Amino acid sequence: MIVIGIDIGSVAAKAYIISNGSHHRAMIPTGWSPREAGQALIDQLLDKSGLERERVERIYVTGYGRVAFEQADKTVTEIKCHARGIAELYPEVRTIIDIGGQDSKVIRIEELGQVVDFAMNDKCAAGTGRFLQVMATALGLDVSELGDAENPGQMQTISSMCTVFAESEIIGSLARGNSKGGIIAGLHQSVGKRVAAMARRMGIKEQVAFTGGVAINPGVKRALEEEIRTRIIVPEACQYTGALGAALLALENP
Amino acid sequence: MADYRQMWTDLGMDLEHHDVLCEVLPEAFGGVYLTQQDRPKGMDFYDFVVSEIHGVRPAEMLQHQEEGGKVFGTFCVYVPDEVVFAAGGIAAGLCGGSQFWVSGGEKVLPANTCSLIKASIGARLDKTCPFFLIPDIYVGENTCDGKKKAWEILAGEVPLHIIDVPQMKRDRDVAAFEAEIRDFIKVVERVTDKKITVESLGEAIKLINNKRRALQRVYNARKASPVPISGKDALLVTQINFYDDPARAAQMANNLADELEQRINNAIGVFPDKTLRIMISGTPMAIPNWKLHHIVESLGAAVVVEESCTGTRYFENLVDESATTLDEQIRALAERYMKTNCACFTPNAARIDDIIRLTDEYQVDGIIDINLQFCNLYSTESYLIKQVMKEHNIPIMHIETDYSEQDFEQLRTRVEAFLEMLRK
Ligand code: SF4
Ligand code: SF4
């Protein structure tokens, strides 16, 4: 059977195609049209795998843009898809921390990726990729550069949780001559604190995996590990777990 | 809609600004309500009220004032409407439920104030809601800090009487509330220039009890499976009951209940069999706040009960009608109102007991516990509720939101994931 799972996030769209045991994946920026991003991914996957559209049995779609994408056979939430994806990669994981562009989530799962509880940030950008994006811009950097640019030895703690206030706080901090590396470490700390608090309220059970676009940033991983005092697994393809989960669900649940 | 522009002008409303609201509301209502399938015929009345929302009832209130009657604006279910009606007055629940009014409130209130307070203050200050301009007097209370201080800001605008609602439920607190009712009677007698008698108060107690009984019938029908009415429709009924004429409100709710009971006999529902049944607990949803109900029901689950002031807290307990003296009546009123379990009380374990009981009575599959952002009372209490529900193996999710549409997609994801979890 051939299936496709697509995860249309606010920043990047990711997809998996699974055909009889072999699989391919692809990722593109979502851009302004989730629908077009989804279509472009399908084309890329068919191209990579040399399969035809007619042979694809089912397409499941998840992520922020799922509602706009009409070609799907079914829409599933990111929460269920991340749970399923991680269960496939790391069956021992019981807590997933996912930080994406718009939101952050903590998902508690049992065997086979069964979701038992989850928490998600309320209407507030603190503790999300968006927060880091705004701060990177304020520092004149690209968000992808933050991870390697931090210097935890000179940590400048950010006291404000609110994106708007934090932005003026770091501008002030720069003006006082503090090092960028220290400020960036402080930003990572602030995201780590925020998300760790959400995780603690729900209860953390080991092992813990960290997924989503922000998981690429080793600074946030470091901060999270310090906050929850546990080693955290970051899957090699941490941005793809949602798409993988969607594809697996498409394979399993007609 | 009939032409109410003259009436609005006479009230000193900001017509230009108000027109914006008049334009968006029908569209919002159409999208949320009129797209539903198989609605009970009894909803026609409520649809009509919404279509003339700033016209038909305000006109009645103004007519009442022209004939010498008085109108009292209220903001909380602890205010005993009976007293007002006993003196021939009209009491109308005013809480603002739209983002439209929030910016008006933000001109004077701190940012970390809940939308309900911001919208209520904004509706008055911006002069874009006739209900907020008609009352001869507002009746506030000191249930939460946000409201308590907001009244001080409004005091320069409109006459206000504040009811001191106790924060605990010991015998002496019930006695204190009794004293508050006595004071309130004096205020109402002064404003209306009418004496409240055993007879008139007895009549008013029956009048309001009858409205409560009618709402209880509507809610009882929601215990059935398949459920004969959507959560959105039931919420609208309760919301309109806050300011409609109580006798008519009872009659309309009874008509609706007749129809719903008929539907139950014929096993007719508005959702397919095995639809997930959701309880919403928490802060009130003032009209036109239909956001969470709309999200839940668009995702194919049914809201079957609201543990909220725009829900069970509004009508669950009746006032004892057997009292024969004013003293006994006042005591009966105090006892009834002090049975209501709002998060402004401590300790408030009875509210958690209510939630467990309602879960059982309404065959609830999962609870969405919601509070308006910056409502410290309900958000703190949500922690305790979650603990107890976990012990009872009742699935629950907590949501904090406001009146804006910004978090609509995010809320949809959370609710959808919760439903996925319940479906397993
Ligand atoms: S939630 Fe509490 S304070 Fe608010 S209206 Fe209800 S009883 Fe009054
Ligand atoms: S929702 Fe909370 S903060 Fe707002 S008025 Fe009611 S009790 Fe006060």
Q: What do the pLDDT scores of chain A average to? A: 90
Quaternary structure of the protein: heterodimer
**Tally of strands of chain B:** 8
Shape of chain A: globular
List the strand order in the largest sheet of chain B.
2-1-3-4
Determine the number of helices of chain B (DSSP H or I, runs of at least 4 residues): 19
Give me the CATH fold name of the largest domain in chain A.
Answer: Nucleotidyltransferase, domain 5
Share in β-strands of chain B: 5-15%
Number of domains of chain B: 1
Would you spell out the secondary-structure blueprint of this structure?
The complex is a heterodimer of chains A (254) and B (424).
Chain A: E1 2-8, E2 12-19, E3 22-29, H1 34-49, E4 58-62, E5 74-75, H2 78-89, E6 95-99, E7 104-110, E8 114-120, H3 129-138, H4 146-149, H5 163-175, H6 180-202, E9 208-211, H7 218-228, E10 232-233, H8 241-252
Parallel strand pairs in A: 1-4, 4-5, 6-9, 9-10
Antiparallel strand pairs in A: 1-2, 2-3, 6-7, 7-8
Helix pairs in contact in A: 2-8, 3-5, 6-7
Chain B: H1 5-10, H2 15-34, H3 44-51, H4 56-66, E1 71-74, H5 81-86, E2 90-93, H6 102-106, H7 115-125, H8 130-133, E3 137-141, H9 145-154, E4 160-163, H10 171-192, H11 198-221, H12 231-241, H13 246-265, E5 277-282, H14 291-298, E6 302-307, H15 312-315, H16 326-337, H17 349-361, E7 366-372, H18 376-391, E8 396-401, H19 408-423
Helix pairs in contact in B: 10-16, 11-12, 11-13, 14-19
Short key terms for the protein model shown above:
heterodimer, A: 254 residues, alpha/beta, Nucleotidyltransferase, domain 5, 2 domains, five-stranded mixed beta sheet, 10 strands, globular, B: 424 residues, four-stranded parallel beta sheet, 8 strands, binds iron/sulfur cluster
